[in-house]
Amino acid sequence: MADVPFLLLIEDDDAIRTALELSLSRQGHRVMTAATGEDGLKLLREQRPDLIVLDVMLPGIDGFEVCRRIRRTDQLPIILLTARSDDIDVVVGLESGADDYVVKPVQGRVLDARIRAVLRRGERESSDSATFGSLMIDRSAMTVTKDGKDLQLTPTELRLLLELSRRPGQALSRQQLLRLVWEHDYLGDSRLVDACVQRLRAKVEDVPSSPTLIRTVRGVGYRLDAPQ
Q1: Residue 49 — φ and ψ, nearest 5°?
Q2: Most CB atoms within 10 A, among 86, 99, 186, 192?
Q3: Domain boundaries, the chain
Q4: In what helix (H) or strand (E) does residue 135 lie, and over which residues does it extend?
Q5: Is residue 208 reached through a cis peptide bond, with omega within 30 degrees of 0 on the bond before it?
Q6: Strand 143-146 and strand 149-150: pairing?
Q7: Distance between CA atoms of residues 99 and 130, nearest Å
Q8: What angle do CA 120, 93, 135 make, to 5 degrees?
Q9: Which residues of 75-89 are buried (b: 16+ CB within 10 A; e: fewer)?
Q10: pLDDT in tens, the chain (228 residues)
Q11: Torsion of CA 142, 146, 152, 158, to 10 degrees
Q12: In the chain, which ranges are continuous DSSP H helix?
């Protein structure tokens, strides 16, 4: 990632798009914008941003479909802009592969903090590694392999796996994981954790519906186990 974060903002409302572009630029980001999902995907074929800020309600193909199309080939971080936090939009967005969401009306400083938190998830760590069965986590290279093959993880999926791997066999609550991975210091939305665990299991488990690595601890949260 460059010293100045490069963002793609996809938002159809002219006033919101202009205000967010100005605010994020003042916060030290370089921003390119698109008013439709189609235009945003076209820009992605021409340039590679560090992160995408994506509105859910777009003309033509909506934000969910844009997110799905990006996830077919790329693990770029995605933050959704949604009108409400208590409806199906959040669940569908997270299941589509979004890393986080911000509820409208959006405050520039709040969005900036979320962006920087997501980008920090991809920063390199200490030079050690951990092995869990056929899964090998290299913290120095920030890579994960399974049976010797590289896994393509989003920065959020990778950070979640790293945090669990630091405490093997220890159950971490959803609120602990929200603080460690998403840097949410308040009583955050546990759906972020559950959706990310679901996506991560699909990549690291032999049988995602019967996980042997990332185990659910009822009434608590999750833990990472080496298979027996």
Answers
A1: -80, 170
A2: 99
A3: 6-120, 129-224
A4: strand 135-138
A5: no
A6: antiparallel
A7: 24
A8: 55
A9: bbbbbbbbeeeeeeb
A10: 557 899 999 999 999 999 999 999 999 999 999 999 999 999 999 999 999 999 999 999 999 999 999 999 999 999 999 987 666 788 888 889 999 999 999 988 999 999 999 998 877 665 588 899 899 999 888 899 999 999 999 999 999 999 999 999 999 999 999 999 998 765 568 889 999 999 999 999 999 999 999 999 999 999 999 755
A11: -50
A12: 14-26, 37-46, 63-73, 88-95, 108-120, 155-165, 174-177, 190-204
Per the CB < 8 A criterion, the answer to whether 37 and 61 are in contact is yes
CA 112 to mean position of chain CA atoms:
15
Around Cβ 112, how many Cβ atoms within 10 Å? Answer: 18
* Correct CATH for 129-224 of 2.40.50.140, 1.10.10.10, 1.10.3720.10, 1.20.1260.100: 1.10.10.10
Tokens found for residue 215? 């185990």
Whether the Cβ atoms of residue 211 and residue 217 lie closer than 8 Å to each other = no
Residue count of the chain: 228
Q: How far apart are CA 138 and CA 23, in angstroms?
A: 37
Tokens of 185: 């210091």
CA angle 213, 181, 89 (to 5 degrees): 95
The pTM of this model reads 0.80
Task: State the amino acid at position 176 in one-letter form.
Answer: Q
- The pLDDT tens digits for 168-205 are 999 999 999 999 999 876 556 888 999 999 999 999 99
